[in-house]
Structure prediction request, 190 residues.
Amino acid sequence: MKVILIRHGATMGNQEKRYIGITDEALCDTGIEKLLKNVHKDIYPAADKIYVSPMKRCIQTAQIIYPGREAVVVDDLKECDFGRFEGKNYIELSGDSYYQKWIDSNATLPFPEGEDIKAFRKRCTEAFIRIVKHAKDNEIVALVVHGGTIMSILSEFYGGGYYDYHCGNAEGYICEVTQDARIISAKKVL
Prediction:
């Protein structure tokens, strides 16, 4: 089966380089414009089924890419809760000693007052397994989610490092996936 992993369009927080996890931001005008240009260029493949994170930015993105289509909301596809880092950018966090420790750990330490990165990755990968198990072998399934969700899924089921799969807003991957959720190919879109 084919699985399309699409990161939501840009929000104001994304443009300001903020950690936006549980903050339920809508798309900004620039994010909407980029998505509409991509749709006009026919960048995104058609999908038989569409799954989305419950966050506004993902739901809006799915509505732009797949207008008039029903999307299944999957709570476990949400972005990580960045805790004390939520809503801040690296400049605002530069004086925070724990932030520097977190950076030095290659982002493996838990987010203070937030979600443990291992628990986040497990939540995302388990949701992916459930979605794949419900799909038919010849279906095309789209997931409109977050950057961290995409990185979690690809690093777990395709191999490589977590940050190897970073993609920009409105970008993503087209994957060939087996029924047991193994990703056998992943091609970056855009």
Summary: The chain has a mean pLDDT of 96. The chain has one domain: 2-189. The chain has seven helices and six strands.
